[in-house]
Please model this.
Amino acid sequence: MRNKKIAGVIMLLLSCLYSCDPGIGVAIHNKTNKDKTIQVLYPANFRFPGDSGQSQYNLCIRDSIKTFDLMEKNNYLHPIVIPMANWDTVVRTYSFILKANHGAVIESRFLAAFPTFGQVFIINQSDTIKLNKDGKDFIKRPKLFIGGSWTHSIKD
Model:
């Protein structure tokens, strides 16, 4: 009987985590006082943030990026949608301007544990970073298997 209660509590806890978890997200935060040009080179299996059905939090706008003002307390309530620039589906690249003190969601999925590893980001045509599984450039929070966000912060 005790094992059934423990199993029930574990199932309830897992159900809560499963239902409340927003999946995964890859974000870039510009924590500088200057706008930055972000160029994204994405692999073939990449899912755009606006693809319908990929995230319960998307706006279903495939040619745009959802950004947030990092200075605003509840910034997720007021996303700012900006268009992609220089979108090339043959070489799989797009770019956008990330304002100072803003963050951008590059990829989001619901009920998935891993982002599309292998994405490359070029910042202001100079700094190149890659989203690797064990890389140090992107910090994963929370550090649970079931989801979380991978975030890279641009600092002065």
Q: What stands out?
A: The chain has a mean pLDDT of 80. The chain is about 10% helix and 40% strand. The chain has one domain: 23-154.
